[in-house]
Specification:
The complex is a heterodimer of chains A (210) and B (211).
Chain A: H1 2-19, E1 28-38, H2 40-46, E2 53-62, E3 67-81, E4 85-88, E5 94-97, E6 99-114, E7 125-143, E8 146-152, E9 155-166, E10 175-188, E11 193-195, E12 198-208
Antiparallel strand pairs in A: 1-2, 1-12, 2-3, 3-6, 4-5, 6-7, 7-8, 7-9, 9-10, 10-11, 10-12
Chain B: H1 2-20, H2 31-34, E1 36-41, E2 52-55, E3 59-63, E4 66-70, H3 73-88, E5 92-93, E6 102-110, E7 116-118, H4 121-124, H5 126-129, E8 141-143, E9 150-152, E10 157-164, H6 168-171, E11 173-183, H7 190-202
Parallel strand pairs in B: 2-5, 2-6, 3-6, 8-11
Antiparallel strand pairs in B: 1-11, 3-4, 6-10, 7-9, 10-11
Classes of the chains: A mainly beta (210), B alpha/beta (211).
Chain lengths: 210, 211
Amino acid sequence: MKQRILAGIIAFSACVYSNASMAQDKLRLELGYNISMPTGSFKTNEVNNTSFRGAFGEISYPVSNKLSLGLMAGYQAYQQKYERRLYTTADHQTISAVKTNAIDVMPLMLRGTFFPTGGSGKLVQPYLSAGAGVNFVNYAQYLGEFGSSETAFPLAVQAGAGVIIPVGSMLSQTGLKIGATYNYSGYKQDNMNTKLGNIGLHAGVVFPLK
Amino acid sequence: MKSQYLAGLLLVAFGSVFVGCSKDPLENLTQEESRIYITNHDSTANFRSYSTFTISDSVAVINNNNVSRQQTDVDKAFIEAVRTQMVARGYTMVSRSSNPDVAVNVSRIYNTSTGLISYNNYWDSYGGFYDPFNYGYGGYGYYSPYSYATYTIREGALSVDVLDLKNAATSNRINGIWSGLIRGSGIFNPATAASQVQQLFNQSPYLKKNN
């Protein structure tokens, strides 16, 4: 799985590298791979495994040399299987089961990215980002092989930092992006009431669109 | 403008690849892990007040509300496992004609219908396959003060019910005071019957004659 993701990113990077031209102040596209580590009640109550199944994409427009605004969409799948335990209900029912939580989170956000040193022409471009939007959350819980699922659309916010490393001297807006984000979202439905806090680490490619 | 369409298409394609790669949560579940063991009881029952029990040598097979009695190797294994657990909890097995305090019934339940059913439905026709006359209480009805939650039925289940005969005359009915239900894959296996029944009793520490 990981090899397929890496191979996909490398292939896409090569394609972009060969076709992109110098394109200052043009619409940019980012595609990347993301891992996510749950924090807080999300980690304590639902999933404490790091998720290695994640991706994101963003279309952004540079409104100035130091600031770009974009629309970001992503996907992250969390899963945790707990050892057999006893669960009791209010009506004296006791259930012994292996519990599995499976949570898919798909954020859709407006995101601003700030480049303190300017958006191009540097060897490494550090950036800070902040975003807000909505998460599409699909939450499934299984007791043994018997499960139920529910969906919700809680608000979500994100803050991030990282660097963009330009690829090739003639392609100042094409680069590799490495960074981290902190993501926060409330979730309250029938089966789960928690905060979907998590730290994401990502790597991807950034390139201008003609 | 083409580039925006291209970008959108790429995002959708990229996202679809990852969404399609979502792992099946049940992919690596073993048969043992697939099973759930559910127990419930009458919270007003005093299990230490009962001393003797009887258990049938066959099981009721409830298949879409059609009932028959069977005695397969699987059934024998489950009956023996229940008997062993009851004795281990301090109860004495006696014949049905010796005025046992409780009766223990083992049932296999199959339902091939789709949708949701309530498992307590089988109590509605309990007298049809466990005639109260057999316990010396002809004409009495059965009653359970509790019920199982509803689940989507995918395959068979095995239930064990403990019925209060000692107080049947007082309450004018035979009350269910404890139930165990096993659901999941590979239930009907004589080799694992003992461990499955043991799990039901392990999670019911109150079900015993002695301290």
